[in-house]
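Fold it.
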Amino acid sequence: MARYIDIDLEALAALSRDLQTLHSDLSSGSAGARCDGIGSPRLRSAVEAFSDDWAIARGRMLESIAAVGAMAEAAGTTFTQVDGDLARALAPSDAAGAP
């Protein structure tokens, strides 16, 4: 059984930044396909259906990426705060050894 917790806060922060970049990149891309040049009605219908499905899936991915990014950022903040709190609690106080 492990006796300590080892968390790579830099990796957690990098994950959060990477997810923010991915979210930004995916958000700025085109949401749908242009079907103006497609002559075949059957092909146009298939491309439009794919585009509609992609828009829905893309929206869900964006929501998930944002949620996981926020969790990674919050975890990093919380672990940093807890680490500081524990360090302060374990540090000897000036009053502890005073008569």
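The radius of gyration is 25 Å.
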